[in-house]
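Researcher: Structure for this, please.
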Amino acid sequence: MSLLLSLLMALLLGQSVPAQPSLDYDTFKTRVQPIFLNKRPGNARCVSCHTAGGAAYLQRLAPGQTTWDEDQSQKNFERVKRLVVPGAPERSRLLLHPLAVDAGGDEFHGGGKQFMSRDNPEWQVLAAWVRGEPPPPVQRIQSASKDERLAARTGRPGVRIVQTNSAGDAVSLIDPATNKVVGEIRDIEANHGAAVAPDGSRLYVTNEADSTLDIADAKTLAVIKHVPLSGHPNNLSISKDGRRVYIAIAQAPGAVDVVDTASGTLAKTIPIEGAGHNTFVTPDGRFVVAGSVAGKSLTVIDAATETIAWSMKFEGGVRPITFEKKADGSTGRMFVQISDFHGFAIVDFGTHKEIGRVTLPDPPGQPKNTEGIQGSPSHGIGITPDGKVLWATSKWYHYIAAYSMPDLKPLGIVPVGHEPDWLTFTPDSKTVYVACAGSNYVSAVDVKALKEVTRIAVGQVPKRNITAVLQ
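Model: Predicted structure, token format:
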């Protein structure tokens, strides 16, 4: 029964209505607010995700600023109050969203599960504040030792599935020969997109916590440089010659940052319509395609001149894109996933026109998941390296669907983990790896057999992934 309904029933029955506890500002400032800054092992901090975009309820800290001033704290207090029901921690989004499902938390949280139990000391502080009670005594939270981390730092040559963890603090490297995590790029908080240099010597990762492009050495997996960007980054891509990295800037007014890899500096910022979501380089390397959710558009940039060549609009935000490669190496069709559409649009690259759509199937009798899909019922699309099969994810029903190329005839669906968000392939086209953001693992699927063969535990809220051949 909702709180409002309970109050109405009490009034109708002539019962006294208990006063709701007030939310104490001083307790918020001194005990609750520091929780948003605390670093928990394996997780990104709350402040790393909640100062930008639609989930921004915390004030952005200036460079070098370690906590909020009085004015910022007051603004945080007013925003955070909207996420709680005074007197009822069990009905408060602030407490349930980051709580593990087994402990009664929500199904999905884009920032990962920060609290595995209601006995967590920080969760108890939040609960006491919501109930209007004095907070429990301060307890020291034990950090994980280096030996407790998932994998060794040192990289090894060979094919790797590079899996970012958007609510974590490390990038996972999977060996497809063993389907084991064999390395980590550590200390990149809220890592989002990844790209690899053509010669396999460097890995590039967008760092959402610091708004930087982080460059890692592929042999040691150590971050060797942080390149400041013009704004909050999302996904990225790299030119065919490895000289340029193109980063989608995910805040208004929207842009693509161009980083020169030789100097490791921001070379140019190209404005686009709306905050950037992803960038892609076409199969022939001639164009960079940037999609915007807010702008409901894609922008095509000439890679040679780094100027806008053309653009097109959709009824919804532009999300992942994949490309058909013609026999001569040029781009044929684009397959574009769109906000609130369970499927993908087909665009003729040459004429700049949409020529069709494919709607993913609704499995009979299977309930539709609407939690955690973030306006994208289908998010994640790609074509096998041999060009024979197109795969697309369904976040509504937790599967990936296969279509033959070029005729797009359905081949079948394969159930995977919750909120499948991105996918990549082994170079031989035999296996597709699916980042399951709601399950914190990667599903490995046999392309020919249409069957999930294993699940690989990674970090918090895995999203973007790529296939890299490291030196």
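Researcher: Any notable elements?
Model: The longest helix spans residues 70-80. The chain has a mean pLDDT of 92.
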